[in-house]
Amino acid sequence: MSNLKIAAMLQVGPLDSMGYQYNHDITIECLHAFFDKVYIASSTPKLTELPEHLQYDNVELLSTPSTWLQHNTDGLPIFNLTKPIPGLNHVLKKAIKDGYCDLALKVELFQYIDQKNFAALRAYCDQIIESDHLFGYRYKALQTRQYIAHPTMCHPALFNLRHDRILSIHIGTDKIEHGEQVVHAKRGLFLDAPYFITDFFPPILCEKDFLDKYEYYLKPIWDYYNCNKDMDWPSYEKKQLHKAMQSPINPNATLSEWGWRMMKSIPHDSCVHEWDMKAILGQPLQSQPSIRTRLINKMKSIAGKMNLIKSQDNKS
To answer: Highest-confidence range of 45-49, 191-195, 270-274, by mean pLDDT?
Structure first.
């Protein structure tokens, strides 16, 4: 077993609304159980202390002007997604200064890791240190109800705190910057991922949480990516269902204690209870063909049609 010490870094806003109230404690308890240190950055001055049952010895909440987002005249946070995230960059520097851990992994609410994947993460961390890499990746798989998909997202979110250029890292939205280089998150089907974090899906389970979170978070995100402007709840739910259907189910993944707890945290009035899981499963226990396979099949289909046209021309 590796002797490396690994920290988790997490940024949180209000924990009592917008969907965070259902399972934020599961994420924090899981991080406490597996990681040597957990740094939590509060993005709001309204959160200066964790609930008593989450005040573990290895969990540290940082809530200072250095971690808070700017607020508008209505008291709502202003998300400037073009700039580094203040809270996460603050806790990264804190982790470096503390000198206790060797690596730090950026994690988000709604996420958890199980025993098997944490052991694989340790092995991956050994490779990062041995190769003297500045950073590594966090692979993410979606969990819809009791089903876990193959990893479909890869974020530059694992940081080598011992590297001599670690202070050059700036954590942004779905990217990191170091020096003049920018490394973005990647989408795909990562069947050979060395490990994965499970992301409980969807992040918004009820219409009320959607409305509460719309101005606070969703609209700035959509403005940043220039998409989905003025989306209402039915449209949002439909989009999330489509995303779940596009994530191929992993036949070898089984729910851990954390996964079952996440599933049981779904509120009784959530739209997820009404989703057609047969539609989400599609081909049960089979992954979708890769992009390369789909491209080859399409080329074969085109070639077949061209041969058919040529054959008809010859006959005429």
So the answer is: 191-195
- Whether residue 211 contacts residue 233, with contact meaning beta carbons closer than 8 Å, is answered with yes
Q: Which two tokens stand for residue 227?
A: 């998409």
Q: Tell which CATH architecture fits domain 1-285.
A: Alpha-Beta Complex (3.90)
Domain boundaries defined on the chain: 1-285
- For residue 71, give the DSSP letter: B
- At 255, the amino acid letter reads L
Backbone angles phi, psi at 67, to 5 degrees: -105, -20
Contacts of 206 (CB under 8 A, 6+ apart): 19, 267, 269, 270, 271
SS3 label, residue 37:
strand
DSSP 216: I
pLDDT recorded at residue 246: 87
> pLDDT class for 279, splitting at 50, 70, 90?
confident
pLDDT of residue 304: 59
Average pLDDT, the chain: 87
Q: How many CB atoms lie within 10 A of CB 193?
A: 22
Are residues 4 and 129 in contact, defined by beta-carbon separation less than 8 angstroms?
A: yes
pTM of the predicted model, to two decimals? 0.85
Count of other CB atoms within 10 angstroms of residue 222: 15
Q: What is the number of H-type helices and E-type strands within the chain? A: 9, 13
| Peptide bond preceding 156 in cis form (omega within 30 of 0) | no
Q: Which residue has the higher pLDDT, 104 or 45?
A: 104
Give the bridge partners for 103, in sequence order: 6, 160
Confidence of residue 283 (pLDDT cuts 50, 70, 90): very low
Residue whose C-alpha is closest to residue 224's, from 45, 87, 85, 41: 85
Confidence of residue 285 (pLDDT cuts 50, 70, 90): very low
Whole-angstrom distance, CA of residue 201 vs CA of residue 182: 28
Alpha helix ranges (H) inside the chain: 24-34, 86-98, 115-130, 207-213, 219-225, 233-245, 257-264, 277-281, 291-315
CA distance 147 to 151: 13
